[in-house]
Amino acid sequence: MDLKALIRDVPDYPSEGIIYRDLTPVMGDPRAMQFITETLSGHLSALRVEALAAIDSRGFIFGAPIAATLDIPFIPIRKAGKLPPPVIGTDYSLEYGIARLEIGTSALDDGQRVAVVDDLLATGGSAAAGAKLVAELGAVVVSTTFLVELQFLNGRLNLPDGIDVYSMVQY
Amino acid sequence: MDLKALIRDVPDYPSEGIIYRDLTPVMGDPRAMQFITETLSGHLSALRVEALAAIDSRGFIFGAPIAATLDIPFIPIRKAGKLPPPVIGTDYSLEYGIARLEIGTSALDDGQRVAVVDDLLATGGSAAAGAKLVAELGAVVVSTTFLVELQFLNGRLNLPDGIDVYSMVQY
Fold first, then answer.
1. Which of B65, B95, B98, B100 is buried most deeply by CB count within 10 Å?
2. Which helix (H) or strand (E) holds A164?
3. What is residue B107's predicted lDDT score, i.e. its pLDDT?
C-alpha cells in the first residue's frame, strides 16, 4: 500500500521552508490504519515486545491499536503535568527551548521488553526521552517504532545504541 | 468486568478536594481495554456510526481501537495550533480560562454519522466543543461516548439535545 499517497504535504508549515507531513488523511483511511497496525504489530511481535509505551499525543493514535493487536499493556508517555503523581520525567531540547516528558513510576515491570511508539521520527528528541524514561523504570527498550522517518534529520543518531529503530515511510 | 477496580483514585489532585480518576491502570490492562473497545464498538455499531472523532489526547487512546474495530475513519480533534491548516476551531470555558479545539476542514463528509469519543465526561465543555466542530463541517453527531462519566458535574446538560450520551463507568 502506498502510504505516501495518503500523506499530505503542507509547505511552509509550521514555518517557512518546512514541509509538514500531515498524517490525518492516513488516520481517516481505515484500510491504511489496518495495514499500519498489522505491519508494526508483526514487527514488534517478532521482537517479543511485552508492553507498548506511546508518546503524547499522535503516538497514542498509532500505538493503541498495536497494543490491542498484540494484547499487551499500553503505557502513555505524556507531556509535563498531564499524568498524576507519582511520575518521573526528563527534559529534552526542542528547536526553540526545552520540553519535558513524564511516565508513571509503576507503569512498567523490571526487565519488561518495551517498544516506544510515535507517529514520526524527526530529530529523535522525544523518542530518546521516552526511551530514557522506560529504561529508568528498569524495563528494556527493544525498539523505537514510527510510521514516518525524516531521514535527513538523522534522528537515529540521537537514539540509544543497539536498539531497533523501525519506520514504514521515509522522507 | 469491574473497571472501577482498575481506576486509581488520586486524592487532592490536581487541586485540593478533587479526586482525580487515573485511567492509566486501565490502559495497562489489555483485557480491560479489549472489554472497553468491544463494548463501545457494539454501542456505536448499533447507532450506525460512520466516523469516529476523538478528543486530544486521552480520547485518542480509547478512540483509535474503536475506529479500527468498526473499520471507520479516525478523526482527531486537537488542541489549538496542533493541526495543519486549513482548520476550523471553537473556544470553550475551562474552570480557569479558555481553551480551543480544532478540526481539519476536510475531515468529514456532509451528512456523515459521527461519534465524538473522549475518556471522561466532566463538565462537558470539550465534548460539546467537539460536537460543535463536527456539526459545523456538515456531519451529524449521533453520539458522545466516554469511558467514565462524573455524574455530579452534570456534563450531560452541556451536550447538544437529542444526541446519545453513553458512558461505561459512572461516579
1. B65
2. strand A164-170
3. 96
Do A61 and B76 lie within an 8 Å CB cutoff?
yes
CA B70, CA B118: separation in Å to the nearest integer? 17
- A171/chain B closest Cα distance in angstroms: 18
pTM, to two decimals? 0.98
Peptide bond into B11 cis (omega under 30): no
What pLDDT was estimated at residue B12? 95
Query: Between A and B, how many CB-CB pairs are < 8 A?
Result: 107
Confidence at residue B132, expressed as pLDDT on a 0 to 100 scale: 98
The C-alpha cell at A162 is: 543497539
Report the alpha-carbon distance of residue A126 to residue A133 in Å, rounded.
11
Phi and psi angles of residue B17, each rounded to the nearest 5 degrees, phi first: 90, -10
Radius of gyration of chain B (CA): 15
Contacts 24+ apart (CB under 8 A), A55-58: A55/A101, A55/A116, A55/A117, A55/A118, A55/A126, A55/A127, A55/A130, A56/A82, A56/A101, A56/B57, A57/B56, A57/B57, A57/B60, A57/B78, A57/B82, A58/A23, A58/A118, A58/A119, A58/A120, A58/B60, A58/B76
Please report the pLDDT score of residue B95 as a whole number.
73
- Please tell me the distance from the alpha carbon of residue A52 to that of residue A71, in angstroms, as a whole number: 10
Q: With beta carbons under 8 A apart, name residues in chain B contacting A39.
A: none
All structural domains of chain B, each given as residue ranges with its CATH number in brackets, are 49-170 (3.40.50.2020)
Per-run averaged pLDDT (10 residues), chain A, 171 residues: 97 94 98 98 98 98 98 98 97 88 97 98 97 98 98 96 96 98
Q: By the 8 A CB rule, do A162 and A131 touch?
A: no
ipTM of predicted complex:
0.97
Q: Chain B contact for A98, CB < 8 A?
A: no
Segments in chain B below pLDDT 70: none
Nearest-CA distance B164 → chain A (Å): 23
